[in-house]
Amino acid sequence: MKMNQIRDLLAAAERGSLxxxxxxxxxxxxxxxxxxxxxERELGITLFERRPRGIVATPMGERFINRVRAAQSExxxxxxxxxxxxxxMQGTLAACLSTAVHISLLPRVIQxxxxxxxxxxxxxxxxxxPDAEPRLKDHLIDVYVGPVPEKLPSSEFVTEKLFDNRRIIxxxxxxxxxxxxxxxxxxxxxxxxxxxxxxxxxxxxPLFARHGLPMPRVTVQAxxxxxxxxxxxxxxxxxxxPVQWEDFHWTxxxxxxxxxxxxxxxxxxxxxxxANLPLTPAAxxxxxxxxxxxxxxS
Length: 298
Description:
Blueprint: H1 3-15, H2 18-25, H3 29-43, E1 48-51, E2 54-57, H4 59-85, E3 92-97, H5 99-104, H6 106-116, E4 121-126, H7 129-137, E5 143-147, E6 157-172, E7 190-193, H8 201-209, E8 217-221, H9 225-233, E9 238-242, E10 255-258, E11 265-274, H10 281-294
Parallel strand pairs: 3-4, 3-5, 7-8, 7-9
Antiparallel strand pairs: 1-2, 5-11, 6-9, 6-10, 6-11
Helix pairs in contact: 1-2, 1-3, 1-4, 2-3, 6-10
């Protein structure tokens, strides 16, 4: 297998057609067609199904492409790492951060990071661990920073706690339950969640059970902070969010905290990375900036 075959394969998979892949790479279409056919002969499988409007990976092709994409990502990181060790401020750092980390830590990290690694491209996404886990396993991101489930596969990941956290309950301004003072007062409400686990009941259930209460009605699961804030601000849904939301100026006018008497513990905020390979110097510096920014919360 040759490097140009890997390049051509990934371009074809990303662009969805051989013509678009050839145009993207700046080569003739017959060249990329021949490259992929040679790779198919070498593997003994068909990688793509040809269709009137382009190509689609076969099931076996998709499995192979996912492996190749992960390998290419690691190769890119190896090149970045060597360059950074030689003092070249280049490469890419990919990180998935929870909303709480975006609000509380990223503003203190972004400027010093770019002062040190001005030439490094930052690829930042928002999400929770269920979103980040497959990308960590496939080496498509360097680190995840945010709340984590209680049980992680210890052999696959290295987890470092930054600080313990707590939660607050938020509602739209003027919500009819705004004066509630206990979880029991909120039992008739409907809830929205962005869960740190795949199933929201695994997170909500134990917390309410500790106070002798049944599982609340979780009828919406959001997959972004924007969805969460929009739904809560324009409905009577309640949300239980990290305490950092209390200081988020973008939602301060539309959301309000409901002051219940119970202590609402939250999953700890952690840095999670793959266990098999070290971070690049840029990624390690990014994590060090996060550690420093976490001190006020520790």
